[in-house]
Amino acid sequence: MKKQHLVLNLLTFALGLLMMFAIISCGEDEEPPIVINVSDFTVTIPENPTAGQNLGTISATTNRGTLTFAMASSATFDGAFAVNPATGALTVANPAYFDFEINPVVTGSVVVSNGPVSETVSVTVNLTDVNEITVSVSDFSLTMPENPADGAVLGTITATTNVGSVSFSLSNQTPAGALAIHPTSGLLTVNDRRKFNYELYRTITATVTATNSGVSAMGSITITLTDVAETVQQRLDDGETPKQIYDSNNNLLLDLYGKNYGGGFIVIFNPATGNGFVLSDEIPGGAVNYITAQSRANSYNGGGFTNWRIPVQSDIDAINALLNANSGLLPTTNQTWAGGTCCGGGGGLNYYIATSGVGYGYSPTNSLLPVRAIRPF
Questions:
Q1: What is the rounded distance in angstroms from the CA atom of residue 56 to the CA atom of residue 167?
Q2: β partners of residue 266
Q3: Is the pLDDT confidence value at 155 over 90?
């Protein structure tokens, strides 16, 4: 009987050992549950950060596996932040939210995940106020007579800023180049008096920009011109073309002849096309022979122009037709050289403008005569 009990006890003990080993084996095969440890994120920065500016890194750990990070949607600051999905680095996505005067605190949430397990991290960014630069500029308007002098002062552009000082610049000028502005004082002046011509431009406009450290404000400039009674010569001097003057008043055609224009005085004008010729005064250097006369006319640069030449017979005929119809329109002069040759022994065509009109004849090529040049406009 005792033997039977001993065998039974041994069997029971063995069975217990087997069950214990089974339990231990099962425990070794099972992985522990995933645990994520996170901390809320808080930082204080100056307002107006730039897009992509780093704010810090979300603090999170896990007992096994890999963490991923993602922004949670926000009804208040949707899109304010961005987070690196692998590292948890938090950056500014939309700088517009980070304005102390509007949002002194910007908040959001980051979801930290590891497989099916996730935790939510609260993000709080406290903003500090920054003394921001402000710039304002006033519009400028003026009514004035036409034909001011170059450099004439028109006024001063008014601009204000809360820090430092502003610089000034002009853009969108109509007509171009009419105005100039001092870059630091804002003094507005006439840059090109020819643009201040009532007959051509009734109004001069531009945009003025005041800038301080990248912050700018823009204002408008409007200058209204009033008409001033002028002679034809004054209008030419102010930059109008003969055709513009003729088109403004067809009765001014004869008034154009003999007027100074483009380095000479007008002797031929076609009102339909606006083309014509001006004749120079006698070119300095005294009387010369015919060959030298041609060279001197070709190298003349009166009025800054280089397309001068000796007149030819057709030019003289056109001038003569004008003078025969309208005596006294042009200055008088002695004989001067013109283009062309003639006569068996050789000679040069010469012409004269005198009280009797314009005429031409022939002189030996070695005769000494002064030189006048003609050029088209």
A1: 38
A2: 278
A3: yes
Q: Is there a contact between 132 and 209 (Cβ–Cβ < 8 Å)?
A: no
If DSSP codes are grouped into helix, strand and coil, which group holds residue 12? helix
CA dihedral 138, 142, 146, 152 (to 10 degrees): -50
Q: Mapping DSSP to helix (H, G, I), strand (E, B) and coil, where does residue 29 land?
A: helix
Q: Going from the N-terminus, what domains does the chain have, and what CATH number goes with each? A: 36-128 (2.60.40.60), 135-226 (2.60.40.60), 232-376 (3.10.100)
Q: How far is it, in rounded angstroms, from Cα 161 to Cα 136?
A: 7
Burial class from Cβ neighbours inside 10 Å (0-12, 13-18, 19+) for residue 241 reads middle
Express each pLDDT in 40-82 by its tens digit: 999 999 999 999 999 999 999 999 999 999 999 988 999 999 9
CA 277 to chain centre: 38
Token duo for residue 259: 């007027």
DSSP labels, 266-307: EEEE-TTT--EEEE--PPSS--B-HHHHHHHHHT--GGG---
Taken as a whole, the chain contains a residue count of 377
β pairing state of 81-83 and 117-128? unpaired
Distance between CA atoms of residues 207 and 100, nearest Å? 32
Q: Contact at 8 Å (CB) between 333 and 256? A: no
Q: Are 211 and 202 in contact (CB under 8 A)?
A: no
